[in-house]
Amino acid sequence: MAFPDAVEQWRPYQDQFSGDVPTDWALDWMRTESGGNRCNVTTSAGFPEAGLFQLDPGNATMAGVTQDQILSGCQNGRDVGTDSDRMFAVSSGVDYIKVLKSMAHAKLQNAGTDWSESTPDFWALVRLQFSAGLGAVDTWLAASVDSLGRGPQNWDEFVSSSGAAGNHWIDVAEANGALAAGFVGSPFGSVTTGDLVLAGIAAVLGVIGAYYLQRRLFIAHAP
Fold it and tell me: What's this model's pTM, rounded to 2 decimal places?
């Protein structure tokens, strides 16, 4: 999907840092929240929200950063920073999203269910935690479980059984989640660098073991 130029300029950065976060989904978040202006600051919610993803102070803390760091290289709402400042503006937002992603899985699993990251349903729930707030999602999910007697199996079931249908933030999250349909994340998923190193060592040891096994077989069958 193509976005306005002010948003599309962030695609290379988002591709670099996204990993297991859908790029178009994240760019749509930027479009809705900041219009692609990484120096954007708003207070319409009653507290300051800053940057591409419009993180409030609590959101920023969840990502392990501050609003001042997010806005590094900004002067009077204009970007006069370095490429490193711009990379940080994206990577800090992705870090926050990854926290929300883990929380969404945990909330669903606590309800006795879980949704695949390849579905728009999951990413709609991730976004809903930001747009409506963590408390609202907890309340709606609890109401859904009470209504169904089990955890909701998908987004539609969650919305219809929680009493959240018609809420503005539900509509925003659903439209945003649709951009993640069929998303497949990093080929390494949640595999860490340590895991990859161990896998490499195991592969080397396997080659060495195969060599010595062949050597022993050759000696055993030698005339």
Answer: 0.82
Tens of pLDDT, residues 16-72 = 998 899 999 999 999 999 999 999 999 988 999 999 999 999 999 999 999 999 999
Burial class (CB in 10 A: 0-12, 13-18, 19+), 94: buried
Task: Evaluate whether 187 touches 20 at the Cβ level (below 8 Å).
Answer: no
125-151 per-residue burial string, b: 16 or more CB within 10 A, e: under 16: bbbbbbbbeeebbeebbeebbeebeeb
Cβ-contact 55, 90 below 8 angstroms:
no
Report the alpha-carbon distance of residue 215 to residue 207 in Å, rounded: 12
The secondary element (H helix, E strand) that includes residue 79 is: strand 78-79
* CA dist list (Å): 64 to 84, 96, 112: 17, 8, 29
